[in-house]
Amino acid sequence: MRSMTKWRIPLSKPRLIALSVIGVALAILPLVVESPYILHLAIMALIYAALGMTFSMLFSTGLISLGCAAFYAVGAYTSALLVMKLGLSFWLALPLATMITGVIALGIGSVIVRYPGAPFVLVTLVLAVVTQQTAGQVELFGGWGGIMDIPSPSIGALQFTGKIPYYYLLLFLFGMIVLVFQALYSSRIGRAWKSIQLSDPLAKAVGINAYRYRVSAFTIASSAAGLMGSFYAHYFQTITPDITGGWVSIYIQLYAVLGGIGFYILGPALGASIMVFVPEFLRLVEEFEPVVTGILLIVLIVFFPGGILGTLQKRPRFRLANLSDRIRKIRRWISTGAL
Amino acid sequence: MSLVTAAQALLNGLLMGMIYVIVVLGLDLIVRGTRIINFAHGQVYMLGAYSFYFAYAIWHLNFWLALVVGAVAAMILGALSYIGIFSFVQRRFIAGGTMSFRLLTSAMSSVGLMMILQQGTLIAFGTGEMGIYSPFPQFIALGAVRLPAERLVAFGIGLLTCLGLYLFMFKTKLGKATRAVCFNAEVSALQGINTSQVYLLSFVVGCGLAGIAGGIAATIFSVTPTMGTHIIFMAMLVLVAGGLQTYKGIIVGGIILGQFLSFGYQLFGGLSYLYSFCLVFLIIVFRPGGLFGEVYD
User: Fold this and answer.
1) Could you give the CA distance from residue A256 to residue B285 in angstroms, rounded to a whole number?
2) Helices B227-242 and B195-220, interaxial angle, to 10°?
3) ipTM > 0.90, yes or no
4) How far apart are CA B46 and CA B127, in angstroms?
5) For residue A331, which phi and psi values (nearest 5 degrees)?
6) Which chain B residues touch A257 with a CB distance below 8 Å?
7) What is the pTM of this model?
8) What's the gap in Å between the CA of B146 and the closest CA on chain A?
9) Which domain holds residue B230?
10) Pairing mode, if any, of strands B139-142 and A154-155?
11) Are A101 and A244 in contact, with CB atoms under 8 Å apart?
């Protein structure tokens, strides 16, 4: 019999307050910030945060993917081609591209997920390079120049212009992804994923089909990446093979680890917003940026493997009670002449 | 495709396969010995090629001496990176953590090193291609097929390197210790093997192999800053296709992919990357652990 308890939000009060503050801040951001440049950065931060979450989702099943950007590109190209060659509307192309990316991910994932561990890491990185090379070589995908003049979406007669409508659309998509991911993590499926990550053989012994759960994680994560790719294609209106090449997949991994790899949703969000905004304001020389990032990667993983949130969590809380205790102790020292 | 071009492609493929085999043997030694997936291996190869180029073309050293300079430079780089970065990473391994976390640690740290080395090379040497004058400009004519002597020499060096690695791993005591550590580090430490020395040794030898391969590549192809990323890509394909932790698989996989890519350039042009990925994909559909490997968890 189902319990008669009231439906309740599974969050403690401070967390709920923090989350609603973040939500409201994100919602009113375009009203406060006038500069389209900052808004562009915010859009890119949201996209990269979602991509970082896909990396985290794969990591939650014990898989390390260096090819998250491959499915981002697949989504972008699929959506662009659906709109430009078949003449579909953006609102149809967005879910279709997501589904097509999911199907491709299911096909590839059902083979490569069988070898978790080193082979999976190698194959996913190769996958990103192959996607880039294929997009660059095939005439249909526009070659190395990419696809240009992708039409912007419209509702009825209202054409999307400026950054603000895109921002709200992305915020909606991002919220959907966060909700779906959080629902998965807090359900039976998410617990199965985490158990597989902790110990693959033990999870199998308990009766969890590790292979199926991993394929499902791979498919869901890749379709989310495809969704983001589809949005990006219509937002930026130009896509080149470079969106999956170079260091993109590695940056995605960095976002997830910088924020905190144990925090599947907050971690990538924090990491991506830091990595998008901070280098822009520091005005790093572009040449040296990969060098700095490389050093950051090494220092982070060797000395702070928990990321920002993980390191903060480990520290004892700062409490007033502790403070008064300390003051009392110091007073005692002084009065006994220990100092 | 005429018979002559086919023969040339066959020879090219054999040579490219040889380079892949040497690089992957080095990478596999590192992965086996230290359990670190070294993504920076391609950059070590590239720096080996650059050092060879500088030793041969700028300082006008003897060809063989220049090869040694390339290998030694790669070894020094390997030793520095092991002592500076990967020994700390291994300390994390010993501290425990799940399998996936170990993989993440090793992958991230080596990718960081890869970014630093790659961008550092770009800043230092620019994007230009550098080629050397052929040290052995003779030809050996077999009917209509012309065999450049430099390619034969390069192939011979490759074979000698493989032979040397075989002798080291199977005929010396140090090689035996390395194999024991590869098999099980804890138990071999109990048998009195200094595992931290063996870790350093396998890392340095692996990087040295990459340096030799870089020297060979520099004699035949030109030296570019992108050669490292290309080779690491192919090395991963070879490693997955042949199977991790098998010598046979690496040699067969390297030769097959070398041939495939060489003929692929003639037949499909730039798409040969995609086809070689599809080939490897097919291999792992039917042979889960690669051609000769087993499935490891």
Assistant:
1) 30
2) 120
3) no
4) 13
5) -60, -40
6) 104, 108
7) 0.86
8) 32
9) 3-286
10) unpaired
11) no
- Measured between CA atoms, the residue of chain A closest to residue B233 is A126
Q: Is the pLDDT of residue A298 over 80?
A: yes
Q: Bridge-partner residues for B223, per DSSP?
A: B130
Closest CA to A64 of B106, B134, B264, B272: B106
Q: How far apart are the first and last CA of chain A?
A: 67
Read off the amino acid at residue A298.
Answer: I
Residue A328 makes CB contacts below 8 A (sequence gap 6+) with none
Dist CA B73 CA B198 (whole Å):
20
> In this predicted model, what pLDDT tens digit does every residue of B209-260 receive, in sequence order?
999 999 999 888 888 888 888 888 889 889 888 887 788 889 999 999 999 8
Using alpha carbons only, how large is chain A's radius of gyration in Å? 23
Task: Name the CATH topology of A13-305.
Answer: ABC transporter involved in vitamin B12 uptake, BtuC (1.10.3470)
Q: Is residue B285 very low, low, confident or very high in pLDDT (cuts 50, 70, 90)?
A: confident
Q: Is B233 on the interface with A (CB under 8 A)?
A: yes
Task: For chain B, say whether A111 makes contact (Cβ under 8 Å).
Answer: yes
Cβ-proximal residues to A103 (8 Å cutoff; 6+ apart), any chain: none
Positive or negative torsion for Cα B181, B183, B187, B191 = negative
The CATH number for B152's domain is 1.10.3470
